[in-house]
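Incident log entry.

Two folding requests arrived from the same account within the same minute. Monitoring flagged them as a possible duplicate submission, but the sequences differ. Recording both here for audit purposes.

Request one:
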Amino acid sequence: MTQAANQAANQAANQERSTFRACFAVAEFRVLFGSQLLLVLGDTVKMLAFSVLVYARTGSPGLAALAYMIGFLPQVAGGMLLLSLADRWRPRALMVAGDLLRVVTCLVLGIGGLGDLPIGVMLALVFAAGVPAPLFSAARAAVLPDVLAGDAYVLGRAVFTTTSAGAQVAGLAVGGGLLVVTGPHGALLITAALSLGSAALTRWGLRDRPARSPRPTRSTRQARSTRHARSTRDTGAVRTTLRVNRALLADRAVRGLLLAGWLPPMLSVGAEAVYVPYLTGEGSAWGAGVVLAAAAAGMGVGEFAVGRFAAPATRERLTLPLALLLGAPLLGFAARPGVAGAAALAFLAAAGLAYNLGLQRRFLDTVPEAARGQAFGLQTSGLMTAQALGAAAVGAVAELVPAHLAIALSGCGVIAVVLALRGDLRGDLRRDLRGDLRGDPRGGRSGRVSPPYGPGGGGEDARPSPAEPAA
């Protein structure tokens, strides 16, 4: 079969509509779903229990807040420096290693917290354990396209997003109950058991797949020509991660899709960070939980409705209008709504997050397979960083203007960003990057030099595209 015929067959398969039932009919997807559920539940309970433990030991609200968020802070460094390992190591081994690291961390916190283990040491442990977290999540995200193909992959991503949101809410509820029954130490030990269960499920439920971009062997390095000598030496994890991140961000299509996934949620999540001070200032502190719950429900309903009832081509056409929906309802906060009105607006705005479903397949098709794990890790770590910056930015605006106006201004920002990125959201730049990397004129820019996506910058270690049989 010719390359053109292969591409046509792949495109037809991508446009074939799948169902959530078809996703769950795949055994390995059920394994990924179960381990993801245990992972999110465990992490949520761990964050809550550790924060309570630190507050009980120190009486400091600031240290308690730091304990709750400290695991997220180092993930930016991990995303910038270590992500290449997601493609150079076997994905199942990475996922199991991540679960076992959580087991050890929770055991040390739970048992050490009973004794005299200093709070500083405990905070440093959680900080250090957070550095490789993007690596483990990137390996998990990169396996999903191997398990689910075409439209089923997009629905699988929707299931993961919705499940994660629900599991976070459930984790907070379960964590609160565990704190009452067992205290923070017992809750941390139970979290260790959940992580151990996730490790066992992953180890014996997933197939052991090879690394996508294996480390070059000694004989391979010696066999390379002189023109590859510099790239051969430059194969360390940090250097490779930085090099591939630069290559991904330098590509117009990849960069556009990343920005389209980062910037609109950056400002919409920033608005959510101001819901609490807004409603507290209105004398309805209790309503903050209602509004945040409505936002979580809106995200889940939006992802389910678009994933379940919209065909693949329709999802991609809805990307721009749904992204605008992220910001338009927030303009209503200029009218200073009460709890019910704020909850309705938050529900509608969060439903717009379903726009991401129209980007997922395009992103998968655009990035080269040899860098798939790192690309997904960059996507995730960039989104987390953008959301943190958005919360800080909208919070700073709320110091200058009333909170309800800060939320409305963030809605204006979302709309402006979406309009600026409308070409990327609509897919105006769709092309086959893998053909582009090979210098194929049909890929978009003929004669382009291949970026160094492989561990040694290309050459003999580069893998053929799945759509192109190996020679």
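Request two (distinct sequence, not a duplicate):
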Amino acid sequence: MMNILWKNLFKSYYIYFNKLDNPNLFFYVGEENGQPVSYGRNLILDKKVCFLSDEFTSNTHRGKGMAKALCGKILMDAVREGAVKSELATT
């Protein structure tokens, strides 16, 4: 069910669920009314650097602050994990 939902929403992006057991990798989903509308991931490198990547918001939800809120949450959690620096890698 979840794979179908993601495939329909984001068309060409696939989540490799087998990689989600990495304790340094955090995956976030932004929802509206219980439906996923954005996502992003964070990899903590050397317990000090927060590497944000693959942030995405669906076309119909862009310009509403979803990405800003999601990145803010990711960065707050990274600081809690001990990160002192962040890098953003996304298009």
